[in-house]
Amino acid sequence: MKKIVKILLTIVIIAGLVATAGFVMINNKKKNDEKTAVVAQTNAAIAVRVSKVEKTPLSLDFLANGKFAPGQELNFSAETAGRVISVLVDEGSMVRKGQTLAVIKTENLSVDVQTAKEAYQNALRDKQRYENAFKTGGVTQQQVDQAELALTNAEAKVKQANIRVADANIRASINGIVNKRMIEPGSVLAPGTQLFEIVDVSTLTLDVAVTEAQVANLKVGDVVAVKASVLPDQEFKGKVKFIAPKADASLNFPVKIEITNNNATSLKAGMYGIAEFSFPQQQPVILVPRSAFVGSVSNNQVFVADANNKVQLRTVVSGRIAGEQVEVVSGLQEGELVVTSGQINLADGSIITIIK
Questions:
Q1: Where is the Multidrug resistance protein MdtA-like C-terminal permuted SH3 domain (predicted)?
Q2: CA dihedral 344, 347, 348, 349 (to 10 degrees)
Q3: Is 60 exceeded by the pLDDT of residue 323?
C-alpha cells in the first residue's frame, strides 16, 4: 500500500513540474511574439524626409544676360554697274536719311536717258498720226492700239533710265553711323557689290532668352532695368518690345528689350548686357520643394504624412515654379508635412519613419 501511495505522489509531482514548465514556455512564447511584432512593425516603416507646408512670399525677380544689337542695321549694295567717281563719307561718319554717300559715273546713263526720251517723242508722234488717220478711215483700230502700246512702253523706258541715273548717287536710307566702307574712288562696281554698312545705335535692343516659368510673367511694354557689363555704374531703362510666341531649340523664349542710348558713345552694339526683371511683392503662397512631387511637377501628386506616421498620396494643383520651390494652388494646408525624399518606396497608406 505504501508503495502505491509513493508512486501516486511521484506522478503528482511530475505532473506539477510538467504543468509549470508548460506555463513558463507559453508565457515566454507570448513575450517573444510581442517582441517580434514590434520588431516587424519597426522594420516595415520606411525612412523618409519631410518638409512642413508654409506660406511664403513668392519672389518672381530674375536676371537675364544677352547682347546689345543696333536698332537698325543696313548693308548697302550697288544696284547698277559703273565706276565710283567720289566717296563722300568715311567710317565713323554720321549720316542722315537721304544723304548722298557716293557718286557713280553717269555719262552712259545720261545717254540712255536721252535715247529713251527721243524714242518716247517718236512714239507720241506716231500715236497722234494714227489717231488722225483713223478718223478718215486710213488705218484700223488695231493699228491705233499698237501705237498706244508703243507709247506706253517708251514712257516706261524713260522712267527706268531716270531711275538708273538716280541710283548712280548712292543715298542713305536710314539715319546712323557708317560702320564699314567697302569702296574707294575709282572702284568698278557690278550690281550687288557691297558698298557701306550703316548702323543706328540711337536705340539698341538687348536680346535675351527666358524660361517657360519666367515668360509667363512678362508682357510687351514692361519696363526693365538694363546694365552693360563694361558700364556697371550706369543703368538704362529698357522696354520689352518683343516676346517670341514659340520656344527655341533649348526650350527658352527669345525676348527683345529696346533701350534708348543716353548718348552716342555709351552703349555699343555687341556689348554684353544684363536685364533685371523686377515684379511687385507677391502675396504669400503655399510653396513646397520641387522634390516633393512624385515623378515630376506635372504629375501633381505628393505624399502627405499624418500624425500616425502614415502617408497619403494626394493630388494637388501646382502653380508657378520659382527655382526649387513650386507654388501649390490647392490640395495642401499650411502646417501639413509633405515627403521630400524616399517616395520611390512609398505607396498610399505606407508606414514611415521621419529622418530629422
A1: 285-342
A2: -110
A3: yes
